[in-house]
Amino acid sequence: MLVIAIYENSEKHEVTVKCSGEEYLITQADFRNLEINEGDFVSEEMQYILETAATKLACIKTAFSMLSYNDMSSGKLKRKLTQKYDKDVAAEVTEMMRERGYINDTSLALRYAESFYSSKRWGPARIRSELFSRGFSSDDINNAVENIEDMDHSENIRTLLESKYSKESLSDRDTARKAAAYLYRQGYESSDIYGIINLIYQE
Predict the structure, then answer these.
(1) In the predicted model, is pLDDT for residue 136 greater than 90?
(2) Alpha helices in the chain (DSSP H)
(3) What b/e readout covers 50-76, taking b as 16+ CB neighbours within 10 angstroms?
(4) What CATH class does 105-149 carry?
(5) Are 3-99 and 105-149 equal in CATH topology?
(6) Cys staple from 53: which of 26, 97, 102, 190, with CB 3.0 to 4.6 Å?
(7) Where are the domains of the chain?
(8) How far is CA 116 from each of CA 72, 128, 182, 190, rounded to the nearest angstrom?
(9) Which class for 161: exposed (0-12), middle (13-18), buried (19 or more C-beta within 10 A)?
(10) In the CATH hierarchy, which fold is given to the domain comprising 3-99?
(11) pTM of the model
(12) What CA dihedral angle connects 112, 118, 122 and 125, to 10 degrees?
């Protein structure tokens, strides 16, 4: 197989390598590393390298498309890319996105945690669980939730309670237990939960 034409797109930083029977769209950086020219013979090894480079560029484009719709952690991006691409390619592209600043897990985890706490009124435990499901590392989760754990959760717990239960209904033990279970699922500790339930009932 011979290289019959090479087309560079400097604006997109892409190069099309046209061979007899095949065509490969790769990054300019990969093309520079290959050092191939029109008329060169393409060995099986070089064909494999071109195929891998083309797959990587396709994976990069997919990653950009995914990130254009939603912010996501590096873990989640890699997991989604792996559904379509080889895990090593997905890992390489994810790391590239992180190194170039398209992904910042630390700041994103913090933004999510603050939003979950202020908007959804979730407690620390549920926030941790949600961040874990979104592919954040333990270090980023700990950093994001650390300040929230030290906060007074009274206002959030009260808001959640009053949205579902009346003051009078909390005098019933079964209702109070249901309310406590609900708040526990929202991520709060029992000591905080029963303190607010008792306080509301006594008002």
Answers:
(1) yes
(2) 28-34, 44-69, 74-82, 87-99, 105-115, 124-133, 138-149, 154-164, 173-185, 190-202
(3) beebbbbbbbbebbeeeeeeeebbbbb
(4) mainly alpha
(5) yes
(6) 26
(7) 3-99, 105-149, 154-202
(8) 15, 10, 16, 20
(9) buried
(10) Arc Repressor Mutant, subunit A (1.10.10)
(11) 0.77
(12) 60
pLDDT digits (tens, 9 = 90+) for 73-96: 999 999 999 999 999 999 999 999
| CA gap 184, 189 in Å, rounded | 6
Tokens 């170039």 locate to 100
Tell whether the model's pLDDT for residue 29 goes beyond 70.
Answer: yes
pLDDT at 131: 95
| Cα–Cα nearest to 28, from 64, 56, 65 | 56
Half-sphere exposure of 135 (CA within 13 A, CB side): 16
Which is higher by pLDDT, 203 or 172? 172
Mean pLDDT, residues 85-110 taken together: 94
Tell me which DSSP letter residue 100 carries.
T
Torsion (CA) 193, 196, 199, 203 in degrees, nearest 10: -130
User: Which of helix, strand or coil describes residue 9?
Assistant: strand
Burial status of residue 97 (CB atoms within 10 A of its CB: 0-12, 13-18, 19 or more): buried
144 DSSP 8-state letter: H
Task: Name residue 82's amino acid.
Answer: T
